[in-house]
Amino acid sequence: MNNNMILVLDFGGQYCHLISRRVRDAGVYSEIRPFDVSIQEVKHLDVKGIILSGGPGSVYEEDAPRIEKSLLGFCKEREIPVLGLCYGHQLIAQLEGGTVAANPVKEYGKTTLEVVKQDGIFNGLAEKETVWMSHGDQVTHLPDGFEVLARTATCPIAAYRSTDGLLHGLQFHPEVNHTPKGKMILSNFVFSICNCEKNWSIADWTREAIARIKDDVGKRHVLLGLSGGVDSTVVSVLMQRAIGEQLHCVFVDNGVMRKDEGRDVEDYFRNTLNYQEFYRVDAEDEFLTKLAGIRDPEEKRKIIGHTFIEVFERKAGELASNFGKLEFLAQGTIYPDRVETAATSKSAAKIKSHHNLTLPEDMELKVIEPLKDLYKDEVRQVGKELGIPEEIINRHPFPGPGLAVRCVGEVKKEYLDILREADAILIEEIRHAGLYNDLWQAFAVFLPSRTVGVMGDFRTYEYICAIRVVESRDAMTANFAKLPWDLLETISTRIINEVSGINRVVYDISNKPPSTIEFE
Ligand code: XMP
Fold first, then answer.
1. SS3 463
2. CB contact at 8 A, 465 and 502
């Protein structure tokens, strides 16, 4: 536990995860909890400050999400500062006796903020600053003893604080890049108002994670589902350091891996990392048989998640004769996986079930997820800290359900074989152009629609390959990469000429949101 932490309470706002990111980037540990976290848990976490996120609700609605009734009283008593952002700003004002109402003029986008008090949370700001607004409701009357810190043309109470300096509210979003001084404002809150120390570092986290795993596991044995990707590789090295031979790594060749992936993963773990307890399980038929005829993306994800667990449990049973009962299943789940599966929030929507979280209810193994609170770039920093080579750390993310979610609709071996060839060509060309490390992901997608083409003097009627290449920092948002036309042409020409079954290549030009990175 870190007694220098900022707790973020999640009211379902789309920027919630960014708040804790920004706080961690400033060097202070931060975690997110649902909005109705108990006072007991807040006490246990020993927080230095609390930030209430934005959210889609309206505080005056009967079923509006609210913090536990006496949380503000508890914070005042313990002198724990609280900052409300957008919905959080309105909620604090309302709970303290102010009023909130819908404004006829909604404010969305960049707005000029007139800073009335350039001290405290606004220390270092100019009289006029650009901020990002996104609200329909606003605070219309402040509670007694509160003062206005800033306003905009249509929002007279755009920021406030209580006279004891413990409660603050900002109608705008300091956590997004569109608020240029946002980082400074959050740093003022964290350091000057909450008196946090700058002491969150990946090196500390790594040391603490190893110690925690040792404590949690004791003398028991753990099975790790290893895919060879960044996350599970980092988990494997962390666990190796913590529990050594009590770790048993299982790589499941599920038939939806990329070209030569099984061979490469086995080689790396057996020969480079020298893992003695590495098992490769060939389960291609089992997975493909269960997926046959299934088109729905969530159904496909569920089948894959459950089949993985069946294979792991079978393997754990086999290993039990040598090592006794294996009690834990370790996984490389990271924070964004949980956000999109809506596992962190009571008010956020489920986008897709990330496979690590699609677990059967009656599972016997207990799950350990050491990276569950980290973002991908933080996981990569942990990897570096552990001495994992750059070429592994910088591998593009690959989803647990593998090519099954890149083969739109029904998954068939014939389609997967086509996809593997196209994907290998794409990656080869991206590497050749020296772009691999600058991109978040680059992959091919199989579209099971046939279109007409002409090759030589003949008509063709074959499938479509989509190319998806995106830039991103943490997968929560992403932009399609503006690749040079020449490169796109080379990729398309090579795929059509070299991959039998494809006669058309299309480039995906959608950003996330509103699209997602994977097609399913
Ligand atoms: P989406 O498609 O949700 O993807 O924009 C965001 C990031 O997550 C990866 N992804 C997954 N990773 N298990 C994983 O470990 C999954 O089930 C899964 N689904 C998507 C995706 O590749 C992208 O980097």
1. strand
2. yes
Does residue 173 have an active-site annotation? yes
Query: Can you give the three-state secondary structure of 80-123, one letter per residue?
Result: CCEEEECHHHHHHHHHCCCEEEEEEEEEEEEEEEEECCCCHHHC
Any idea what the Cα angle at residue 221 is, between residues 306 and 320, rounded to 5°? 75
Q: Residues 389-400: pLDDT tens digits?
A: 999 999 999 999
pLDDT at 73: 97
Q: Atom 17 of ligand 1 has which residue's CA nearest to it?
A: 354
Q: Is 270 in the pocket of ligand 1 (CB under 6 A)?
A: no
412-507: same fold as 202-393?
no
CA of 182 to the centre of ligand 1 (A): 28
Beta strands in 208-314 (DSSP E): 221-225, 247-253, 278-282
The structural domains of the chain, with segments of one domain joined by +, span 5-193, 202-393, 412-507
C-alpha to C-alpha distance for 299 and 302, rounded to whole angstroms: 5
Q: What is the CATH number of domain 5-193?
A: 3.40.50.880
Catalytic residue flag (residue 114): no
- Counting ligand 1 atoms within 8 A of each CB, the residue from 254, 469, 518, 520 with the most, and so the one to mutate, is 518
- Pocket of ligand 1 contains residue 441 by CB under 6 Å: yes
Does the structural domain 412-507 have CATH classification 3.30.300.10? yes
* Residue 39 exposed, middle or buried by CB count within 10 Å (0-12, 13-18, 19+): middle
Amino acid 89: pLDDT? 98
Distance 476 CA to ligand 1 centre (A): 10
Sign (positive/negative) of CA torsion 336, 341, 343, 349? Answer: positive
Put simply, whether the predicted model's pTM sits higher than 0.90 gets the answer no
